[in-house]
Specification:
There is one protein chain. By secondary structure, the chain is α+β, with helices and mostly antiparallel strands. It is about 15% helix and about 35% strand. The strands form eight sheets. It has a four-stranded antiparallel β-sheet with strand order 5-6-7-8, with no helix packed on it. Strands 9-10-11-12 form a four-stranded antiparallel β-sheet, with no helix packed on it. A hairpin with a 5-residue loop joins strand 23 and strand 24. The chain is globular, with a radius of gyration of 29 Å.
Amino acid sequence: MKPSPLPIHTATTTTHHQAIRLQFSTILLAFFLGGFSTFLLFTTFQLGNYYGYSEYSDSLEIVSIPVVFNDINIVLNVDGDLKDKVKGEEEKKNEDTEFPYRPPVEWDITKGHDRRLEYTVNEGTWMSVDLSPDGTTLVFDLLGDLYTLPIAGGKAQPIKTGVAFDRYPRFSPDGNRVLFTTDIDGCDNVFILDLNTMETQPVTAEPYRFVSNAAWLSNDTVLGVKWFTSGRSIPAGEIWSFQVSSNPDSGVQLVGRPSFDNQIGPEEPIPSPDGKYFYYSKNTMDPSVFEYSKDPNKGIYTIYRYEIATKASTSVTGGSGGAARPVISRSGKYLAFVRRSIFKNSLVIKDLELGNERIISDNLSFDQQASSAPSGVYPSFSWTPDDSHIIIWAQGSYFFFFFFFFFFFFFFFF
């Protein structure tokens, strides 16, 4: 049986209807005023837009200039190349006038820390490794510290520890120094560690643009990737050379970005043994703007060879599965690199004389081809002096276990 409705007095009903009509009218008025204000704001922005043509694009681009609406000054950032056109100024190559927005200050990341962490491990995650020129000693990074280890095995010896995150070590051609990247001054820069004195010296001193993936071109010259951002946090790399001296070097650009606002650029340089060339990788699937959710099996990265004398780049390998993290053999005859093979990551060797390629291992950990990878698509590795072996990190497990645990915890408790 349905319950009987409660009696409602006429006066109460009338008041209720009036309240409904008043509320409905208020909603209509709010929608009208909101829509009208949005129309005015949209119209004001359209009137305030400057339509310009960019030499780096085949489409019409819109540049917003300052607009005043209801006493509020609305300023939208403008891409550097188009802003220069609005001002009638010529864009200065490799000079960022928009960044940083405030002057950088000196910062030592090691100050203010007095805790000590001790641990014992027998494996690690995302470890770059290099072998000394004489083939006797390994240098590698682990949790932001640098270690050496005899190639025959044994106990690793720390050579650079502390709060700063140090990584990507590489032996110098004479074997007496180690090149590495560190954030000790608050920005990733390239430093050198003297293995005889254990003293460090900066190669770069960038206050804003990170420098990473450094490699020795000679005992006195270093290659590095300098990262540039424009209207988005996704950076584009440029390959620069830096002179090793008593003072940090500002560097010289070798392979740059196609344009100021480009989000794609060259990465992971590695010189040939004779110093005439260097190899590098580049995202060739995205023409200028970085896109997520790409299929690595279709080929995202391509490896190029840059001839220093002619300043010309030629494609070496790529295609299905891509090709990244090039490492040239000590003889210069072979090129090793990382390639995605459906659900596996493979280590591939290319014979540079014959042109053939072969997979020597498909047990690598997953690479970062589908991501923006300013730290490298895969950790750096090394050949032995006789080209008979490759020493590379693979199958670290802690990261994947942690990720699985975090996903499980988040899914079931939130």
